[in-house]
Design goal:
The chain has 242 residues and is an alpha+beta fold. It has two domains: 71 residues, Arc Repressor Mutant, subunit A (Orthogonal Bundle), CATH 1.10.10; 155 residues, Chorismate lyase-like (Chorismate lyase). It has eight helices and ten strands. The chain has a six-stranded antiparallel beta sheet. Strands 1-2 form a two-stranded antiparallel ribbon. A two-stranded parallel ribbon has the order 3-10. Helix 2 crosses helix 4 and helix 3 packs across helix 4. The longest helix has 14 residues. It is elongated and about 75 Å long.
């Protein structure tokens, strides 16, 4: 043991050893961590010292405790709620992370038959199409591929999407009244894999979402997320309201 390590408090040594295993991939999300007794014996410390190391890692969100089962490496992927629609930059900033984006395309295109079904517009009529990559701490977390109805958002194509998100702008000028969406797992093609900086064998979460205002369908978006960096979920409260 070197002088730098020996000078550290014993609980810090345990934390450092566990963090090193996680960073090197020796322990992965969902793996069970050694118990307080096992760590105390391994490092020659008291159970209280081992408990402090585990408790601090749980507080920091690196480990998670499950009552009666033990302590596990936490799933560190950010989680988005399937029960509400929020701007992606708000989600990222709320997690204390850095948001940025890359605008891949802002175009006016002729509506295809599929666009007509999605938006309720005439085939070959003009619709707006944007493709934007959203990044969290510099890593792609979502490709937003969106078709917008010009009748309900005529100035959409003129927006600076490095300064605002499509979701925020559309919510402002055509307030959301309804939405329907579906979630599925897909394998990316070469283009999508390159955009999201993942391998083609890495599954993606695809959220297809159609949003409505009081005047009709505003947009249809396909949102692609790297499965190894993103998850969705939410909390359901079944208690009757008071």
């Amino acid at each position: 043991m070197n002088k730098k390590t020996s000078a550290q408090p014993r609980f810090v040594q345990i934390k450092s050893a566990l963090l090193e295993k996680i960073e090197h991939g020796e322990m992965r999300s969902g793996d069970k961590v050694q118990s307080e007794n096992q760590l105390a014996e391994l490092f020659g410390v008291s159970r209280m010292t081992a408990r402090r190391a585990l408790t601090e890692l749980v507080t920091e969100g690196i480990l998670a405790r499950s009552q009666g089962l033990g302590t596990f490496v936490s799933d560190s992927r950010p989680m988005s709620s399937i029960l509400e629609i929020r701007s992606i930059d708000d989600e990222i900033i709320q997690r204390g992370h850095r948001y940025s984006n890359k605008v891949l395309g802002v175009d006016t295109v002729a509506a295809t038959e599929q666009h007509s079904v999605w938006l309720g517009v005439t085939i070959a009529s003009a619709v707006f199409h944007t493709k934007i990559v959203h990044l969290e701490n510099g890593l792609p977390i979502q490709l937003e591929d969106r078709i917008v109805n010009p009748e309900l958002a005529p100035q959409y194509i003129q927006q600076n999407f490095t300064q605002t998100t499509a979701n925020r702008y559309l919510s402002k000028i055509a307030p959301l009244t309804e939405a329907d969406h579906s979630v599925e797992a897909v394998l990316p093609d070469n283009e999508l894999a390159k955009i999201l900086e993942i391998a083609t064998a890495q599954p993606c979460l695809k959220i297809s979402r159609r949003t409505y205002s009081s005047k009709g369908v505003v947009s249809y978006a396909c949102l692609y997320h790297p499965g190894n960096r993103y998850r969705i979920g939410g909390h359901l409260d079944f208690n009757p309201s008071h």
